[in-house]
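Lab meeting, action items carried over

1. Structure of the two-component assembly. Owner: GW. Status: complete.
Input record:
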Amino acid sequence: DAKTTQPTSMDCAEGRAANLPCNHSTISGNEYVYWYRQIHSQGPQYIIHGLKNNETNEMASLIITEDRKSSTLILPHATLRDTAVYYCIASNNAGNMLTFGGGTRLMVKP
Amino acid sequence: DTEVTQTPKHLVMGMTNKKSLKCEQHMGHRAMYWYKQKAKKPPELMFVYSYEKLSINESVPSRFSPECPNSSLLNLHLHALQPEDSALYLCASSRLLAGVYNEQFFGPGTRLTVL
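Predicted assembly:
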């Protein structure tokens, strides 16, 4: 699986958009980009995933660059409950192996 | 029912004990996973079961023995553990169709302390 690189931590004001970047410059053509988050003392929670096209669901939007070397997770209106560690993962095309990296600790502040 | 349950929530055991962790899901998922998470570290994949058969073992020591008795249940049997095995053990499940695994649903984990 391709290695991903994320900033260690980020702050965001409550109600504003949180934009979390991820670099995956060695991603192969059949690897998906997955995003999960882990709120303190809970199991990870799936957020969104994509291959080439931008994706949106009720939780977030995923913007993948045309060359697929990086992506951005967007939480449109961050709330205090979005404070968590966010993991960007480039998964094998079968999707059965998630290699979690260090993640970004997002702190949403009032 | 859209959740993965794990029991017990907490477990303290000695190095000579034998214990088991249990994971259950009723979403009809045919893939189930065990992860280990040390404090302040990301989760690490241990085992993957596909259609109740072990499909991936990430070089886990034999003192950890997984078992999948049916499509809803996943156990992790523990024997002769070391203090460094203390961690949060996470179970997950996902749909599996035509060889493609969908997003994983995680349980809350069992926090294990080995004395």
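2. GW to write a short summary for the group page. Key points so far: The longest strand of chain B covers residues 18-25. The mean pLDDT of chain B is 94.
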